[in-house]
Design a protein that fits this description.
This is DUF2059 domain-containing protein. The protein has seven helices and no strands. By secondary structure, it is mainly alpha-helical.
Length: 157
C-alpha cells in the first residue's frame, strides 16, 4: 500500500512539474507576442500603420485587449513561477517586456516586478543590473518602489 501511495505521489509530482513547464512556456510566448504587438502599435502612433500594415486604431484595440487578457494572466503566472523558483530566462524576459511596453498605462507589470524584487531580491538585482541603461531608465520611471529596487541593482554592477 505504501508503494502505491509513493507511486501516486510521484505521478502527481511529475504531472505538476510538466504543467508548470507548460505554463512557463506559455508565459514566455505571451510576453514575446505582446512585445511584438506593442512595438507594432508604437510604430503606428507616428506612421498611422504598423509594420503589420494594420491601422493605429486596430492595433490599439488589439494591444489593449491583449494587455488586459493574455498578458495580464501571464503576469500573474510569472509572479507565481518566479517567487516559487529562480528562473533567469523568465525574469529576464519579464524585465525586457515591461521595459518594452512602458507606454502602457497598466500598473500590473510594475506591481509584478516589485513583488518579484521582494520575493527573489538577489536574482532580481543580478538580472536588473544586466539590463541596458535605456531599458533600466524606462523601468525606473514606472514607480518609486521599482526605482529603488533598480537603483540597488545598479549599485551592484
Amino acid at each position: 500500500m505504501n508503494v502505491v501511495r509513493a507511486l501516486l505521489a510521484a505521478i502527481v509530482f511529475a504531472c505538476s512539474l510538466a504543467q508548470a513547464a507548460g505554463q512557463r512556456d506559455d508565459v514566455l510566448r505571451t510576453f514575446r507576442e505582446y512585445a511584438v504587438l506593442n512595438a507594432d502599435f508604437v510604430r503606428s502612433v507616428s506612421a498611422g500603420t504598423g509594420i503589420s500594415g494594420k491601422s493605429y486604431a486596430q492595433l490599439r484595440r488589439e494591444a489593449e485587449a491583449y494587455a488586459e487578457g493574455p498578458f495580464e494572466v501571464a503576469l500573474r503566472q510569472a509572479q507565481q513561477l518566479l517567487c516559487s523558483s529562480q528562473d533567469d530566462e523568465l525574469l529576464a524576459t519579464l524585465l525586457r517586456v515591461v521595459a518594452a511596453t512602458a507606454n502602457s498605462s497598466s500598473e500590473s507589470p510594475t506591481d509584478v516586478l516589485v513583488h518579484v524584487a521582494k520575493c527573489q531580491p538577489a536574482q532580481f538585482r543580478a538580472l536588473a543590473a544586466q539590463l541596458p541603461e535605456q531599458q533600466r531608465a524606462r523601468l525606473v520611471r514606472r514607480s518609486p518602489e521599482l526605482k529603488a529596487a533598480l537603483k540597488l541593482a545598479a549599485r551592484e554592477r
